Amino acid sequence: MTRNTLKYSFVLAGFSCLIAAGQVRPKKDPRLVLLIAVDQFRYDYLTRFRDEYKGGLDRLLRNGANFVNANLDHYPTVTAVGHSTMLSGATPQTSGIIANEWYDREAGKTVTSVSDDSVRLLGGQDVAGESPRRLLVSTLGDEMKRGMRDHPKVIGISLKDRASVLPSGHMADAAYWYDTKTGTFVSSTYYFPKLPDWAEAFNQRRLVDKYAGSEWRFDSGPAGLFKMPAAAGPELANAMYNTPFGSELLEQFVEEAIRQEKLGQRDATDLLTVSFSPNDPIGHTYGPDSPRAHDISLRTDRLLAKLFAYLEQTIGMQHVLIVLTADHGVSPLPEELQKEKMPGGRVITASLNTRMQNALVARFGPGQWLVNAAGVYLNLALIAEKKLDRAEVERVAAQAIADAPHVARVYTRQQLLLGEVSRDKFSDKIVRSYNARRSGDLEVVLEPYWIRGATGASHGAPFNYDSHIPLIFMGPGVRPGRYARSVVLNDLAPSLATMLNVETPSGSVGQALFEMMTGVADGAVSRPPAAATPRR
C-alpha cells in the first residue's frame, strides 16, 4: 500500500466515524419533492402544443418519465377529488372527498371539501377558515412526517384553497392560498396562530397592484387582448385569478417560500405541492380550443422554466424530484362540437330536479322531496314521516330522469352500495367513488360531451376527455422515457412512497410505477401479464 493510499484510507475511515457519530451527515437525494399540478390541464395540451414548448414543459418531456396513458380512476372529475387523490392514492369512497362541495346531512347545510368552522382565516378577511379535516386518509406528506427522522417540511401552495390544503395533508407545516377579495396569500389557524413573518411581508409588498393596467395578449387578432383593471382594489385582485398573471404571482410566492423556509436546503427531504389555478377558469369560460387556453399553456411552460432556474440556483435540479400532473381535463364547448358534427350539448340540472320532484309527488304525495342542489339528496325526514322504503323512493326518482334526453346512466344509492351495476370501467369508477355517509342518493351521468350549465365548458364526467391527464416524473431515481402502460393518478402516491422509503398512504389503492425507478433492477420485480392483473 502506498503512502497516498494509506493517507486516503485514514481520511475515509475518519469521515466514516464522523458520520457514525452524527457529526457529519451526507446530503440525501432527493432534497426536495415538488408536486406540480396544473388545474384543468388536459393531456393533449402536451401533444397539441409540443413544438411550441421551449421551457419547463419541454424539459419535463425530454428528461422525464412520461406516462402517456394516465387517467383518473374516480368520479366526478373535479378539482377537490383530483387534488385529494394525488398524494393519498385513495378513491373518494375511502378518502371522503367526493366533490368540491356536498350536502352534510348532519349539519344540514352545504360544505366544501376543506371548509372548517372551527378555524379562522389568516391574512385576509376575518371569516371561518379551511383545513384538511374532511380528508379521511393520510397523504404522502403525513407519512413523511411520521416516518422520517430528519424532520421534513411539508407545504402546499395554490390560488385555490382545496388545491393547497388537500395534497399537503393533515400534518403539513403550512398551506397557502389566494384571497380574491384582498389580493393576499392566506392560510388558517389550523396550521399556526398567525401568518409567518415572511408571508406577511410578501403580502405587504402588494405585488398584485403592479398588474394594474397590464395587458394579456393571447392572440394576434383584434379581439386577442385582455386588459387588467386600471386601479388597485378588489376588481384587480379578482381578475388575477382568471388570467396568467395569477400564475405569475403564485410562482413568486413559491420562490419566496422556498427561500424563507429553506426547502431542499437542509439535511432533510422536504415536500412542496404547487397547483397553478388560472388554467381552470380560463378553460371553463372559453373552452380548451380557445386562443386563451393555448396561450396560457405556453405561458405555463415559460413559468416552469423560471421556477426550475430558481431551483437550479438554490438547490440544484439534480437534487429535486419533480412530478407534473393535473386534477382533471375538460370537455370542448358544445357549440364548437356541433359545428364539427360531433355529439354534445347542454342539460340544465334544474330540469332534471323538476322531473324527479314531480314524479315523487305523483307517486308518494306532496312534499319537498329534494333537500339540496349540491347533488341528489332525498328528504329522509319526509320518507320516514310517510313510512316509505328509501330504496323504492330512490328507484322512482331514478326512473324519472333515466328517460330524460341525454342522460346516459342513473345509479341509485342501493345499487352502488351493493355493487348492482353493469361492470365496465365507467361504472367501476362510480362504485369506487361512492361514500355512504357523504354521497347523494343518486348519481347521474350524462352522455359523452353533454355538460351541465348554460354557458362555457365544464368537466366532471368519467369519460376520457375529462380523465386523461399528464403524469411525468423527473429527477433523482427516475429513468426517463415514454411509458405507454395504462396507469392511474392513484399510482402517484405509492410510487413516491416507494422512492422515499416511507409507508404508503393509508387509503391508497394504487400501484408503484416501478418500471421508471432506477433503484429497481431490470428483472428484479416480476409482474403478472396485464390481462391477469385486476385493476381495483
Overview of the molecule:
This protein is an alpha/beta fold and 536 residues long. The chain folds into 2 domains: 36-332 and 464-518, Alkaline Phosphatase, subunit A; 345-452, Gyrase A, domain 2. The chain is built from 20 helices and 24 strands. Strands 7-6-10-9-8-13-1-14-22-2-23 form an 11-stranded mixed beta sheet, sandwiched between helices. It starts with a helix and ends in a 36-residue tail after the last helix.
Annotated CATH homologous superfamily of the largest domain = Alkaline Phosphatase, subunit A
How many domains make up the coordinates?
A: 2
Can you summarize the main beta sheet?
11 strands, mixed
Question: How confident is the prediction overall: mean pLDDT?
Answer: 92
The assigned structural class equals: alpha/beta
CATH class descriptor name of the largest domain: Alpha Beta
User: What assembly state would you assign to the polypeptide chains in this entry?
Assistant: single chain
Shape: globular
**Model regions low in confidence, pLDDT < 50 over at least 5 residues:** 1-26, 522-536
Approximate strand percentage: 15-25%
Radius of gyration: 25 Å
CATH fold annotation of the largest domain: Alkaline Phosphatase, subunit A
